[in-house]
Amino acid sequence: MQMADTQLRMDADPQGPQNARKLGVWLLALIAMVFVMIILGGLTRLTGSGLSMVDWRPITGWLPPLNAAEWGAVFDLYKQIPQFQEVNADMTVDGFKSIFWLEFLHRLWGRLIGLAFLLPFLVFVFRRVITMRMAPWLILMFVLGGAQGVLGWFMVKSGFSVRTDVSQYRLVAHLLAAMIIYAYMLWTALTLLRGAGRWRADPARGGLTWFTALAAAWIALTMTSGGFVAGLDAGLSYNTFPTMDGQLVPDGLFLKSPAWVNMFENITLVQFGHRVMAEAAIILVAIAWIWGRRRLSAGRARVAIDLFGLMGLLQFGLGIGTLLLVVPVPLAAAHQAGAFVLLALAIWAVHALGSIEAP
Hey, is 177 helix, strand or coil? Predict the structure, then answer.
């Protein structure tokens, strides 16, 4: 089976592999920026900062308020939404600044990612580093990034009328989009760094490759369920492990009707589901690691599998610690960051287990 999105063949050019690696390094730098963006997004959620900017000016909103009058105007907009009226009614302008700056930095960083993509892209096109075969895949990244910005605003708007926070459904949609962009960019970068070409599963490692891909997919699903945990603040309840307040299977899993709604709106089932998925994920990671240790000799794939196994254990520990300590912001942010590191290592392991067909 071939992965269509990896058909990044270079034209018949002796500089082709060298140019591909240049693009791969550029994409890795962008991925690092996306990773920082994800951490900032998690912090805005954890600190309740995401609703502090009530207007959205994607083109002109580069500067923060610069004087007392501008700060007062922005604060007055915030006073009109339920989060201020029901949660932060005693907040002063100085207190408002403490949440505003984090959301402002989050949005500013998104704009900087756009520039860090667009300007080098235009230079690479002018210098013919990017070929006609590769351009559509890179343009798609830019389009997805812009769409993610629109989706982020759609998410934020859900907290301006009735709710005091954002919709967990829109939050998870925003998270899923980030995961897709992150994974797509990483897979493309890894292919380019190996000289560009078409990724193929190595028949000698086929079983391990597809099992690791299964583990990666399961990790992505577990991260998705974690989005619902974050969206419902479900981590603030049942702060014991391995039981949930003394029960392995807690009561109240299906209190809402229809039954399927409980998976997305019932705090008890949402947290229980995430726990079970995380436990299954660490088992899958352990199997992949043991299998890899037995089958792989020294090399890129062995390093990737070893780091994948180590990070899986660390991430599981971060999740337990976050729960037991009732979601302290630094630990919760580390847990979210760890999930994306684990996903990246899973993708790297799958890629390294395959081979690149030369152009």
Answer: helix
Q: Which of 247, 249, 314, 315 is nearest to 276 (CA)?
A: 249
Number of H helices, E strands in the chain: 11, 2
Angle at CA of residue 210, ends 209 and 215, nearest 5°: 100
Task: Tell me the whole-structure pTM to 2 decimals.
Answer: 0.92
Mean pLDDT lowest for which of 6-20, 115-129, 296-310? 6-20
Structure-derived torsion over alpha carbons of residues 89, 94, 99, 104, reported in degrees to the nearest 10: 130
Give the SS3 label for residue 199. Answer: strand
Looking at every residue in the chain, the average pLDDT score rounds to 91
202: helix, strand or coil: coil
- 6-28 residue pLDDT tens: 444 444 344 577 888 999 999 99
Cis peptide before 242 (omega within 30 of 0): yes
Q: Which residues of 109-136 are buried (b: 16+ CB within 10 A; e: fewer)?
A: bbeebeeebeebbeebeeeebbbeebee
Domain ranges of the chain: 1-200, 202-359
> Any idea what DSSP says for residue 9?
P
Q: Measuring CA to CA, how many Å separate 33 from each of 14, 37, 322, 356?
A: 31, 6, 25, 27
3-class secondary structure, 17: helix
* HSE-CB for 201 with a 13 A CA cutoff: 14
Q: Cβ distance 19 to 129 under 8 Å?
A: yes
